[in-house]
Structures are given as structure tokens and as C-alpha cells.
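Extended Data, record IclR family transcriptional regulator
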Amino acid sequence: MSKAPAADQTLRILTFLARQRGPVAAARIASSLGVPRSTVYQLLAEMQRQGYVVHLPEDHRWGLGVAAFELSGGYARHEPLSRLGRPLLAALVDDIGENAHLAVLHGRDVLYIVEERAPRRPHLVSDVGVRLPAQLAATGRAMLAQLPKHQVRALFPDTSAFVDRTGIGPRRYSELRRLLDVTRLSGFASEDGEITRGLASVGVAVTDHVGWPAASIAITVEQGRAEPRDYVDRITAVARELSRRIRGNARGVAGGVELG
């Protein structure tokens, strides 16, 4: 038996929520974990106060909050994702001759953890450690499109949450929602001059073993020099391989050749 039952139960609840495809009722949490319902409500209330869970009163359900997403960024900074992703991005850059980067979601931002630059290509703002608005970046949109709608809504509750860089991009949730719906259907995200004028990017999400967006991979090209969407298949193959390496649910195949 745990010597710190409240801590044990809190961690079990967070782990349980992280493995679900969407929000769940407190009663289901209690029955699945064998924790008294009153205790579950007390722990959820405290986690909600600190931002680790969100409550959907209309649905009587609970899901992960912004603070839980920030934990994933902390995990990324401890190197596992960057170590796994760096050789894959280096090979992608050698293949296509364009800049590539790997990012994780960190609240309403994306945090870049790998940057691979191609020779004679422009310097990018997405250096390792840089944070950029998730709703503007292709990396961010690729991950946001994989989240449940209520999670995205929690991240962008009103117009004050929308940051502008170049005067282009969504200014309210309804505009972002339309972009994410298109992204989810197509399987990739794109942005054109919304981070840096003159540059365009496409990105693909890297999912974990339950389909949650653990990271995303994107390439950036100069507008008019190349069509970034032409590289979607190769980016997708690399994203699938990285998903496989972090215990994702896809097998990595590029051109019929196993990457791992």
C-alpha cells in the first residue's frame, strides 16, 4: 500500500485521463481505479484549481488541462524525443534539401526541440528552445488538430489568447476550428507567411500509443522556390517512424523501406 495515498491516487487519475480518447465522467474514473467517488471529486477539484484538469459541466466529464500539456514539454526537454528525432530529421533534410524541425506543444505555444538546417537555406526563428504561437505554426496546428475540441477550446477561450505575428492567421476560435478541421481531414497542417513573411511550412503530428500528439515534424521553404505540400508524404513517413519509436501506433515505412 502506498505511503502517500493522495499522491498515488492523483497520479493514477492523471494517467487514466491521459490514456482516454476524450473526457470521461468522474464516476467512470472512480469505478475504473477503485477509488471512492468522493475522493475522486476532491482530487479533481484541486487538480482543476491548478490547471491539470478541466471540467465540462454540460457533459459532466473531466479531461486534461493546460498544465498537463506543459508536463509533456518538460518531458521533451529531458531529451528522449529530441534524441530519437534528431537522426530522422537529419536524414529528411539530406533527402529534401530543406530546413526541418521537431516541436512539442507547451500550453498555447509550440516549443522547438530539434532544428536541422539545410545548406544555403534561410535562417529560421524556430531555433531549439524557441516558443511560437501554436495556432500560427504548422507544427502547432498539426498537434492541435489531434486534440479533443474541448481541449483546444480550453487553450483558446477568447480572443485575447490569439497572438499575431505578421497580420495573417486566425483571430478567434471559430476561425481556428475551421483550420484544424481541414488539417485533421488532410493529415497535415500548413501555414504561409504567418510565422515569418516569405516562408511557408507544412507539418505532421507524431502520435503516441493512444493517438495523442506527442510532437510534430515540419519543414519550411521559401515562398515561390518550392511547394511545401510536395513533401507531405516524406514528412508523414518520418512522423510515423518517430511515432513507432516512442511506442506509437504506426509502422514507419518510407518508399517501402523500413526506417527503423
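Summary. The domain at 5-64 is CATH 1.10.10.10 (Arc Repressor Mutant, subunit A).
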